[in-house]
Design goal:
D-Maltodextrin-Binding Protein, domain 2, nine-stranded mixed beta sheet, 331 residues, 21% strand, single chain, 13 helices, binds pantoate
């Protein structure tokens, strides 16, 4: 989908309808406002474009997507609330605030839970991930698919990080995510939950030392311009989710619902492809942009896991050992 087709095709179609006098009933169009936090060139933008392309092609233009990238509709919590109210039709979001809507979602935010991307994808696409998606129905949201951002890494302006002692007292922006906050408290950092639209300004002003996000975000949000150190900590997997409003969903035929669901799954394939690419090329790009990059060794990661002991106890209490063990056992 080119810029022209994304932005001007709907207008051209509307003009055609007016000129040729097509009846409103035959060509009734539903606008789908799609909000997301990052640029159109990011993994979210790529997924959003694929979602639009497939839906618009397969419904003969009965649905017209309108993109609101770069937090154009506000922070992720606000956008999800908009989807819940039906003022926004669709969104692609991180797991940042999802556990405030469906608490079980937070289980995927446990540090060092997933072995690698393949493990995470198998869990999210399998019964555990699908059971959690279905729970969004109870809070007035339709969760169509799990997307992904990659594994999160720490960036900061204070020091390089080789072990838990190096994050002590670090003013680190976290998502508004209780599982993440618990982890960074256990590590002795000073976690500062903050909505994404405020983060770049806070880094520039020095009110926070650092933040943590996957390479997909660090590259597309150009964090190298405001952060010196990048530690490839891979401390937690970062899922994403494609959501639509119940109002939109309930107004659709079953055929259109199926089209939206399949298109969401194609969008996820595109997003994962982007993540695979940036996992390979992102570090070189960030070094070139001047970042001081270090990678935690297996032993150093084990030091972080040991320091997270009290957090793991809390996670077992919150999510249950059975669920956590099922996730770990997934092949
Ligand atoms: O850190 C976050 O809040 C999220 O990872 C982001 C950047 C908004 C992408 O969803």
């Amino acid at each position: 989908m080119t810029l022209f087709t994304r932005h001007f095709a709907p207008a051209a179609m509307a003009l055609g309808m007016a000129v040729f006098g097509f009846s409103g009933a035959a060509y009734a169009q539903q606008e789908v406002k799609l909000g997301y936090a990052l640029a159109t060139t990011s993994h979210y933008g790529v997924a959003a474009e694929k979602w639009q392309e497939v839906v618009e092609a397969e419904t003969d233009g009965r649905y017209v997507f309108r993109h609101f990238p770069s937090s154009g509709l506000g922070g992720e919590r606000e956008v999800i609330e908009g989807v819940q109210l039906g003022t926004v039709e669709a969104t692609i979001v991180s797991s940042g605030t999802l556990s405030n809507f469906v608490p079980e979602t937070g289980v995927f935010d446990i540090p060092f839970l997933f072995r690698d991307l393949a493990h995470a994808r198998a869990v999210l696409d399998g019964p555990i991930g699908q059971e959690i998606l279905a729970k969004f129905d109870d809070v007035g949201l339709v969760a169509l698919a799990w997307g992904e951002q990659g594994f999160r890494h720490i960036t900061n302006n204070r020091n390089a990080i080789a072990g838990p002692a190096d994050v002590a007292g670090l003013k680190l922006r976290t998502m508004e995510n209780p599982t993440h906050i618990t982890a960074f408290e256990a590590l002795g950092a000073a976690p500062t939950p903050m909505a994404w639209p405020e983060v770049i300004g806070a880094l520039q002003q020095g009110t926070i030392d650092g933040q943590e996000n996957p390479l997909s975000v660090i590259t597309s949000a150009k964090l190298s311009e405001v952060q010196k150190y990048l530690t490839l900590s891979g401390h937690v997997y970062s899922p994403a989710m494609l959501l639509v409003s119940k109002q939109l969903w309930d107004g659709m035929s079953e055929e259109d619902q199926e089209i939206f669901r399949n298109a969401a799954s194609e969008a996820v394939t595109a997003m994962r492809g982007f993540v695979d690419d940036v996992e390979t090329s992102g570090v070189a790009q960030l070094k070139e942009a001047g970042m001081d990059v270090g990678e935690l060794s297996t032993e150093q990661k084990a030091m972080f896991q040991n320091a997270l002991g009290s957090a793991y106890e809390q996670y077992y209490g919150t999510y249950g050992k059975e669920l956590i063990d099922r996730i770990i056992a997934t092949k």
